[in-house]
Design brief:
This protein has 313 residues and is α/β, with parallel strands linked by helices. The chain has two domains: 210 residues, Rossmann fold (3-Layer(aba) Sandwich); 70 residues, UDP-galactose 4-epimerase, domain 1 (Alpha-Beta Complex). The chain is 38% helix and 18% strand. It has ten helices and 13 strands. It has a seven-stranded parallel beta sheet with strand order 3-2-1-4-5-6-11, sandwiched between helices. Strands 7-10 form a two-stranded parallel ribbon. α1 packs across α7, α6 packs across α8 and α8 crosses α10. It binds nicotinamide-adenine-dinucleotide. The site of nicotinamide-adenine-dinucleotide has 27 residues, from α1.
Length: 313
């Protein structure tokens, strides 16, 4: 079944940043694709191959509408979620509502329509402040403070993983969980650090450039083209009930990121530090040995990826 040439994928949240790129890639390989999204954040405007994709506008919490789309689907990629750090603080109830009801509808829908292949998007947020870096998939998952709304996002992802694994054992032939680490690229909205920096650089008057925290916080970023390649490997070679970090090993501080962009744009800056938001973490860096074993080799470092974004504007 998994080798079927005209296999049919349904992508929840498929008009979002990652979903659009996965959808385009699957269509270019000859697969059938349905996108199910309420377009609250995503947009199909930038989507290539629109005519070849079955586009359904709907809320993942709407069971009836979602179930209707599951007939003749072979595999589901579940991405629909409230993303963007500022929303974790400002809309925790919505984050949890979409996370929990969406997940239950996806798991029960697959079960009802005998869809045996499921890819669930988790996140690096499940590690919070990891005990070890680079962080492997075996790291302990954490909810450091139930009173901090930020963790609404991470809790939803932990639930995704725990329910996914437990139901996966019983009902699926291939259930895979992936943890993206700061994916970036063109047209992703400004609620992420790289596009947010780029848009502020564009409007910058004077030299003062604000950053959150001391600037010594460590992150790693993965360019969308590399992410799609890694995701393809999961489709081709990923193993049932396995969890995969998707990211790069390029360790970069927020200070260095700002300076890298300033050099590319040829703008002189002086950094102004502001307090890190409560729950913001000092280091996040994945161990990517597991996805590398499937053949993953990232092509982009941060400077190359940022130049590509700028060249597309
Ligand atoms: N971009 C990253 O760096 C990153 C990192 C870790 C995890 N992830 C996860 O990967 C997935 C995709 O992320 P993305 O960057 O493409 O985010 P995105 O916000 O661009 O895409 C999410 C999509 O879900 C849709 N959506 C939201 N609520 C919905 C609802 N109730 N019903 C139907 N659709 C709904 C939005 O309209 C949007 O198109 C998400 O699950 C996210 O949590 C992303």
């Amino acid at each position: 079944m998994f080798k079927k040439k005209n296999k049919s994928f349904l992508i929840t949240g498929g008009s979002g940043f990652i979903g659009r790129n996965i959808a385009e890639n699957l269509v270019s390989q000859g697969f059938k694709v349905t996108i199910f999204d309420n377009n609250s954040r995503g947009s199909v405007k930038q989507l290539r191959f629109k005519k070849k994709i079955n586009l359904v506008t709907g809320d993942i919490r709407n069971r009836k509408k979602f179930f209707k789309c599951l007939k003749k689907i072979d595999a589901v990629i579940h991405l629909a979620y409230i993303n963007g750090t500022k929303f974790f603080y400002s809309k925790p109830n919505l984050v949890l509502d979409v996370a929990v009801k969406g997940l239950i509808n996806v798991l029960e829908g697959c079960n009802k329509y005998k869809i045996k292949e499921l890819y669930l998007a988790s996140s690096s947020e499940v590690y919070q402040t990891p005990l070890k870096t680079p962080t492997t998939e075996l790291e302990m998952l954490k909810v450091p403070d139930v009173y901090n709304p930020r963790y609404s996002y991470g809790v939803g992802k932990i639930l995704t993983e725990v329910m996914g694994i437990n139901l996966g054992r019983k009902f699926f032939k291939k259930l895979i969980i992936f943890r993206p680490h700061n994916v970036y690229g063109p047209n992703m909205g400004n609620e992420h650090v790289i596009p947010e920096f780029l848009s502020r650089f564009k409007r910058l008057k004077g030299k003062k450039f604000k950053i959150q925290g001391s600037g010594n916080e460590v992150r790693s970023f993965i360019f969308i083209d590399d992410f799609v390649k890694a995701f393809n490997l999961l489709i081709k070679k990923g193993k049932h009930l396995n969890i995969y970090n998707i990211g790069t090993s390029e360790r970069i501080t927020i200070k260095k990121l700002a300076i890298t962009i300033s050099k590319i744009l040829n703008k002189k800056i002086s950094l102004k530090k502001t307090p890190l938001r409560k729950g913001g973490t000092k280091i996040r860096l994945p161990d990517i040995k597991k996805i590398k074993k499937l053949g993953f080799k990232p092509e982009y470092n941060v400077a190359k990826g940022i130049k590509k974004i700028i060249s597309k504007k």
